[in-house]
Design brief:
Layout: E1 2-7, H1 17-25, E2 34-40, H2 43-50, E3 57-64, E4 73-77, H3 97-105, E5 109-116, H4 131-148
Parallel strand pairs: 1-2, 1-3, 3-5
Antiparallel strand pairs: 4-5
Helix pairs in contact: 1-4
Length: 149
């Protein structure tokens, strides 16, 4: 099974990127071995609960802040994830990198598809993606389809 997990909170601007990618993928007929999950702001908790022996690959989709151009997509392998407790890709304050690295050591292929944010108004509520990140949704969908088909 392939899990595609969208992380993020639609109330906080570009943080809704993962949700928008999952929503777009739901409109496409995907292979039966692909499961889509809108994990919201609880990506790490979902992963810890649903990963079992049938999972071969996990693709995490989330907003990131790596100082790139807004809307730029960055594909990360587990080897590229930081080895610190708190970092820019964190599935919303839950240390996710160590868990993903453990899964990779167990033979599960892990990729992170991150999109550089422009508008992240936390703690102010301001739903909706910036134009740059909105355009990146289609790019991310294309990358995911290439990964799973």
């Amino acid at each position: 099974m392939i899990l595609i997990v969208g992380c993020g909170n639609v109330l906080f601007g570009d943080d809704g990127f993962g949700y928008e990618v999952i929503k777009r993928l739901e409109e496409i007929k995907l292979p039966e071995n692909v499961k889509l999950i809108d994990a919201g702001a609880s990506g790490a908790y979902y992963l810890m609960d649903i990963v079992d022996e049938n999972v071969e690959k996990i693709i995490i989709v989330d907003a990131i802040d790596y100082g790139l151009k807004p809307g730029e997509i960055k594909i990360l392998s587990v080897d590229e994830l930081p080895n610190i407790r708190k970092y820019t890709f964190d599935a919303h304050a839950v240390p996710l990198a160590p868990f993903l690295k453990d899964l990779a050591e167990k033979g599960i292929e892990v990729k992170v598809i991150g999109c550089q944010v422009k508008n992240l108004p936390i703690p102010e509520i301001n739903p909706g993606l910036s134009e740059e990140v909105k355009k990146a949704v289609d790019k991310a969908v294309k990358i995911i389809l290439e990964e799973i088909l």
